[in-house]
C-alpha cells in the first residue's frame, strides 16, 4: 500500500477550512514546513483515519476537534495492487466512513469500510501498529532503538534503501567528482589556498585593499589636521590689520584650501577603497565556501 494524498477539514488549527497534501510519489518524500504550521496535525489525522473507527469518541478523536467545535473530516488516497482507493471518515457529529474504488466507482460504507481498511492496512489495533505503514510520530523516533522488533528492523531497512538510492550510484559519484575538482582549484590537501587559484587571488586582493585602505585612512587624518589649520588661518586673517601679515595669511590660506580640496578627493578615494574592500571580502567568502 502506498499513500498518495492526505486531506483534512475542520481539524484542530484548520477550523472551518481544509488543507491538502497531494502528489505523494514513490520513494522518499520530504514534508517540511516551519513549526506550528500543522505538520503534526496531519500526521495525527492519518493515524486516526487508519486506526480509529468513525463512531469512536475516544480522547484521541475529541482532541482532533477545533476549539471552536466542529466535525473533523479526514480523507486519504492510497494505491494497492488492486488499484487506487479513497478512504474518508468524519468523526463526532454526522460521523461516517466510506471507501471508494476510484477506478470502478464502487463504495463501501460504515462497518464494511472499516473492515476493508483494517484488512488492507493489516493493523492489529492502534497499539500494535500497521504491518504495511511504518510510522514514527513526533518525539517518538527513539522508541524504535534497541527494540529488535520486526517493525524496527523493517523501518531501518526502508530508510537505508531510500537513502542509498539518493546518495549512491553514478549520479552521486558525478556530483562528488565535480565537488572534488572544484575544491582542488581552491585549496591544497592541507586546506591552504592553492597558489594561483581563485581563493588565493581573492585573499591577495583583500590584503592589498586592506593595505590601501590603511594608507588612505592615515592620509585622511593628516588632511583633517590641515583642515583644522585652515579654519584657524581664516579666523586670523579676518582679524589681521597689517598688510604684510595679511598677505602672509592669504598665502597660507590658499595653500590650506588646496590641501582641503585634496582632502575631499582623498575622502572620495577612501570611500571607493572601502567599497572595493567590501566587495573583495564578499568574493573571498564566496570562494572559501
Protein architecture, described:
The chain has helices at residues 39-51, 59-62, 110-121, 150-167, 169-186, 198-239, 243-288, and strands at 2-11, 14-21, 73-80, 83-90, 96-101, 107-109. It has a six-stranded antiparallel β-sheet with strand order 2-1-3-4-5-6. The longest helix is centred in the C-terminal third of the chain and has 46 residues, at 243-288. It contains seven helices and six strands, in the order ββααββββααααα.
Task: Please write out the topology.
Layout: E1 2-11, E2 14-21, H1 39-51, H2 59-62, E3 73-80, E4 83-90, E5 96-101, E6 107-109, H3 110-121, H4 150-167, H5 169-186, H6 198-239, H7 243-288
Antiparallel strand pairs: 1-2, 1-3, 3-4, 4-5, 5-6
Helix pairs in contact: 6-7
Count of helical regions: 7
Number of strands: 6
Strand order of the largest sheet: 2-1-3-4-5-6
The geometry reads as elongated
Radius of gyration: 37 Å
Order of helices and strands: EEHHEEEEHHHHH
- As a percent range, the share of strand residues is 5-15%
Q: Low-confidence spans: pLDDT under 50, at least 5 residues?
A: 123-134, 139-146
Category from helices, strands and their pairing: alpha+beta
As a percent range, the share of helical residues equals 40-55%
Alpha-carbon distance between the termini?
Answer: 43 Å
Mean pLDDT, all residues? 78
- What composes the largest sheet? 6 strands, antiparallel
Q: Which characteristics define this entry?
A:
single chain; 289 residues; alpha+beta; six-stranded antiparallel β-sheet; elongated
Could you give a short description of this structure?
The chain has 289 residues and is an alpha+beta fold. The protein has helices spanning 39-51, 59-62, 110-121, 150-167, 169-186, 198-239, 243-288, and strands at residues 2-11, 14-21, 73-80, 83-90, 96-101, 107-109.
Amino acid at each position: 500500500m502506498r499513500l498518495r494524498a492526505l486531506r483534512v477539514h475542520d481539524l484542530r488549527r484548520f477550523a472551518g477550512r481544509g488543507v491538502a497534501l497531494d502528489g505523494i510519489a514513490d520513494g522518499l518524500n520530504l514534508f517540511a514546513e516551519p513549526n506550528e504550521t500543522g505538520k503534526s496535525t496531519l500526521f495525527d489525522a492519518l493515524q486516526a483515519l487508519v486506526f480509529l473507527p468513525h463512531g469512536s469518541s475516544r480522547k484521541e478523536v475529541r482532541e482532533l476537534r477545533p476549539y471552536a467545535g466542529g466535525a473533523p473530516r479526514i480523507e486519504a488516497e492510497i494505491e494497492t495492487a488492486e488499484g487506487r482507493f479513497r478512504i474518508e471518515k468524519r468523526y463526532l457529529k454526522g460521523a461516517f466512513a466510506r471507501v471508494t474504488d476510484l477506478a470502478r466507482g464502487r463504495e463501501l460504507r460504515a462497518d464494511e469500510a472499516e473492515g476493508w481498511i483494517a484488512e488492507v492496512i493489516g493493523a492489529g489495533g492502534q497499539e500494535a501498529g500497521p504491518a504495511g505503514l511504518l510510522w514514527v510520530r513526533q518525539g517518538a523516533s527513539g522508541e524504535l532503538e534497541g527494540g529488535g522488533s520486526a517493525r524496527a528492523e523493517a523501518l531501518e531497512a526502508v530508510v537505508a534503501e531510500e537513502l542509498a538510492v539518493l546518495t549512491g550510484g553514478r549520479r552521486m559519484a558525478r556530483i562528488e567528482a565535480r565537488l572534488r575538482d572544484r575544491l582542488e582549484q581552491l585549496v591544497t590537501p592541507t586546506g591552504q589556498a592553492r597558489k594561483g587559484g581563485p581563493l588565493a587571488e581573492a585573499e591577495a586582493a583583500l590584503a592589498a585593499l586592506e593595505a590601501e585602505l590603511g594608507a588612505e585612512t592615515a592620509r585622511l587624518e593628516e588632511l583633517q589636521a590641515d583642515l583644522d589649520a585652515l579654519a584657524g588661518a581664516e579666523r586670523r586673517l579676518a582679524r589681521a590689520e597689517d598688510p604684510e601679515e595679511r598677505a602672509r595669511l592669504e598665502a597660507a590660506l590658499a595653500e590650506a584650501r588646496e590641501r582641503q580640496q585634496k582632502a575631499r578627493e582623498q575622502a572620495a578615494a577612501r570611500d571607493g577603497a572601502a567599497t572595493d574592500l567590501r566587495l573583495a571580502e564578499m568574493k573571498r567568502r564566496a570562494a572559501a565556501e
